[in-house]
Each structure stands twice: as structure tokens, then as C-alpha cells.
């Protein structure tokens, strides 16, 4: 590559979701609405769990952290994305881009592993109900949570470190609405097969290990459910897991579709649309999935609303 096409990049321009002028304002208000629902839903669930003592059990401890991750995840992405709809050039500094990439990777990995921790919690609750409070004690919950955020840090450091060693072309237009791994690799002038391989390995660990853990947990869960004699017991066990299964399918399905396919099969323009699901849609729907299908959360919501009304 010619030397004049290579420079020390100090900022990037985010291309955004689309360059169609007539779509900018409708999309701005659409995604602003999505963000408001995400913030209200996740902070609302965090508040409900914090205020209601009957929800201070392992299942809701993990749900509390899932809501925190989803709120933080969307906050790291959407506000900057909204800027692309209302400004001619959505500029982000090099340091800002690497920071966004770090937190994006951190929350993606953390969500993957918190979902696997929740699957383990459901496995113990259904397969070993008498030992539940001993097996999933507060100490075990804290250790699992340490593992969740520890893997988040490792994944973020691996991906961000991989990108930090690259040199970028002077035409610094990132073909995305955020600083994501694949668009930055495409923009780099010295990325190699090794860089792509590192991304594939780290993503496989970030997605593959939690998926295997979830499948093993649900293998034992399904086996236990089939040994339950009463129809009512089976139905209750399935309903306990249904919200988690929906959340897992949405998150891992969209993530695997984006990152575990070669770029030739999934062009970046289509990848931008695919990434909307796990960066925006999943964090928005998770609190709705867990609250609308959960009796305990509904009871807690009624009690909290009642307290506020009475006050």
C-alpha cells in the first residue's frame, strides 16, 4: 500500500446505519424510543429486585446483573449511534473508539457468561431442588459473578489488544454505527490472517463455552422434567426455563450469525442489521421477557406500585 494512504489515525468517522437522508429522522426517533424502553425496563427491573426482599434469591441475583449488563451495553452503543442520524459526520476519537470497542466486548462476553450462570442456576433448581440453597449459596453466586466479569475483561482485552496493534488507512470511515471488530479489521492496512484467527478463537470461546455449558445444563433439565410424573409439575418446570431459553436464543443466535460466518457470506452492510439484534433488540426485550412471564416479578411490581400510590 502506498505510504500516503497510511497515517497515524487520531479519529474515525462512523458511517451509521444508513446514508438515506429521508430515513435519518424516523430512525433517530425509533432508536431513541428503543433506548428509552431499554433504560426504563432494565433500571425498573434492577429497582424491583433491590426493593423486594422476596426476590433476594440466586435466580434474581443473576437477573439483576443481566439487567445491569443490558443497560450498560445499550448505553455504550446507542447514544453515539443516535448522533449519526442528526449530524453530517459522526466523528469519534481514536481513544473513544477503542474505549467503545473495549466496553462493547466486555458486555458481550459478560452477557454470554451470565446467561450460562443462569442456566446452571435453573439446573440446580430443577434437578437438585432440596440442595438448591446450599449448592447455589451466596458465596457460589459471588464466585460465578466474578467469573462472568473476569471473562468479560479477558475477552475485551484480547479483542481490543488485537485492534490496537493495527495501522489504519487515512480514509478513516468505519462502515458501521459503532466501533466493532470486523469493520475496524476491514479498515486496517496491515491486518492479517492471524488477526482474523484471533477474533475467531476469542469469539468461539466467548460464545462456544457458554453455549456448551447451557446445552449441558438443559440436557440434565430436560431429563429431569421427563421424570416428573405430574403434568402440572412438568408445566411449572418448563415455564421456569422458558424466559431464559428465549433470551439465550435471541442473544446467541444473532451473535453467532454475525461473527461465526465468513465476511464473504455475510457482507458488513448486512452485518450491521444483524448486529442490531444483540446490541439493541436483546437488551430491550430481556426485561420484558423476564417480567411478563414471571409471577414473582409481577407481584413485586404490584407491591411497589401500591407502596408508591399509598405514599
UniProtKB/TrEMBL annotation:
Annotated signal peptide: none
Residues annotated as transmembrane: 27-48, 60-79, 91-109, 130-158, 193-226, 238-260, 275-292
The entry's keywords: Cell membrane, G-protein coupled receptor, Membrane, Olfaction, Receptor, Sensory transduction, Transducer, Transmembrane, Transmembrane helix
Topology within the bilayer: Multi-pass membrane protein
Gene Ontology CC terms, in alphabetical order: plasma membrane
Any one GO molecular-function label of the UniProt entry: G protein-coupled receptor activity
Coiled-coil regions, chain positions: none
Residues of the G-protein coupled receptors family 1 profile domain: 41-290
InterPro entries hit by this protein: GPCR_Rhodpsn (IPR000276), GPCR_Rhodpsn_7TM (IPR017452), Olfact_rcpt (IPR000725)
Highest taxon listed in the record's lineage: Eukaryota
Cellular localization per UniProt: Cell membrane
Family note: Belongs to the G-protein coupled receptor 1 family.
Protein task: Putative odorant or sperm cell receptor.
Protein name per UniProt: Olfactory receptor
Gene source species: Panthera pardus (Leopard)
Origin organism lineage: Eukaryota, Metazoa, Chordata, Craniata, Vertebrata
The gene coding this protein: LOC109257370
Amino acid at each position: 500500500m502506498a505510504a500516503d494512504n497510511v497515517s497515524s489515525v487520531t479519529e474515525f468517522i462512523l458511517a451509521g446505519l444508513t446514508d438515506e437522508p429521508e430515513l435519518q429522522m424516523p430512525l433517530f426517533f425509533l432508536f431513541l424510543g428503543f433506548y428509552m424502553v431499554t433504560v426504563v425496563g432494565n433500571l425498573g427491573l434492577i429497582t424491583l429486585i433491590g426493593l423486594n426482599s422476596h426476590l433476594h434469591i440466586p435466580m434474581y441475583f443473576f437477573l439483576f446483573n443481566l439487567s445491569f449488563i443490558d443497560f450498560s451495553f445499550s448505553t455504550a452503543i446507542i447514544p453515539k449511534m443516535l448522533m449519526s442520524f442528526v449530524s453530517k459526520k459522526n466523528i469519534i476519537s481514536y481513544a473513544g473508539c477503542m474505549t467503545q470497542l473495549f466496553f462493547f466486548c466486555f458486555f458481550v462476553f459478560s452477557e454470554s457468561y451470565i446467561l450460562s450462570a443462569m442456566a446452571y442456576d435453573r439446573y440446580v433448581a430443577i434437578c437438585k431442588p432440596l440442595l438448591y440453597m446450599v449448592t447455589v449459596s451466596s458465596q457460589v453466586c459471588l464466585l460465578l459473578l466474578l467469573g462472568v466479569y473476569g471473562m468479560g475483561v479477558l475477552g475485551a482485552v484480547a479483542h481490543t489488544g488485537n485492534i490496537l496493534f493495527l495501522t489504519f488507512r487515512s480514509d478513516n470511515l468505519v462502515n458501521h454505527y459503532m466501533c466493532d471488530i470486523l469493520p475496524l479489521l476491514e479498515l486496517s492496512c496491515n491486518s492479517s490472517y492471524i488477526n482474523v484467527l484471533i477474533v475467531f478463537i476469542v469469539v468461539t470461546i466467548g460464545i462456544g463455552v457458554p453455549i456448551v455449558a447451557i446445552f449441558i445444563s438443559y440436557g440434565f433439565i430436560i431429563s429431569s422434567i421427563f421424570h416428573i410424573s405430574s403434568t402440572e409439575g412438568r408445566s411449572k418446570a418448563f415455564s421456569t426455563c422458558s424466559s431464559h431459553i428465549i433470551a439465550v436464543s435471541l442473544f446467541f443466535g444473532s451473535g453467532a450469525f454475525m461473527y461465526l460466518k465468513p465476511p464473504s457470506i455475510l457482507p458488513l452492510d448486512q452485518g450491521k442489521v444483524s448486529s442490531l439484534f444483540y446490541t439493541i433488540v436483546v437488551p430491550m426485550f430481556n426485561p420484558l421477557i423476564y417480567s411478563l412471564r414471571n409471577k414473582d416479578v409481577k407481584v413485586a411490581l404490584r407491591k411497589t406500585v401500591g407502596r408508591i400510590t399509598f405514599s
